[in-house]
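Ticket #4471: complex job returned nothing on first submit. Input attached below:
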Amino acid sequence: MNDTKQTFAPERIADNYLAAWNETDASKRSELVANLWTSDGTYLDPLMQGQGVSQIAHLIGAAQQQFAGLQFTRAGQAEQVGDHVRFSWHLSPAGGQPVAGGTDFCQLNETGLLQSVTGFIDFMPTAS
Amino acid sequence: MNDTKQTFAPERIADNYLAAWNETDASKRSELVANLWTSDGTYLDPLMQGQGVSQIAHLIGAAQQQFAGLQFTRAGQAEQVGDHVRFSWHLSPAGGQPVAGGTDFCQLNETGLLQSVTGFIDFMPTAS
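Support reply: We reran it on our side without changes. The output follows.
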């Protein structure tokens, strides 16, 4: 059996994480990122990667330029297995259908901070 | 951009992995596991965990007792992001509808062996 020692409130982690992705104020975004990741934590998806609060806060800001007017929301429940958490998200205009979605897979440290996040795309617009 | 150095044929990894889960001959199963995982590689899901070839081959054998007559098949494509791979699977009777499904997230070492696998359940029978 899995002798998980701690429960890290995976939905709170997911929601705080998506709040950081939605935060367009650079200073507030850096604070949200600093509260989520370890100081040497990493982010990796098919398009971007970064390590540390400054790089991760910056790459989120760069990504926001690509989806101006769209918001991230959690899709379904966040789940924890041991020190890993996964959750899915949608990227949508306010009140509209999602234009993209993905699943992020996180490894936590012993205090529940993000050590690494790997983002997989579930659906996205295809080039026409 | 993601400067992934290598492509590890994620579908081959997924299919070899599921072949190990389907292999009921203990000796062959150990060989399949040894060809997939690093010597100190780990497996973790909500019910089981193990480290190293012997433990992982054994836990697969123990799990097979729970799903005698059922087979794992890959559901959809396997995907790679950096040194991570994810794929989904179904557990089904021959020719029948799946009775359970999940998504496994793998971290690979630099040669493409499994360093860690974390298994999440997507659906399974509920207790009646």
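Chain A touches chain B through 19 residues (CB under 8 Å). Closing as resolved unless it happens again.
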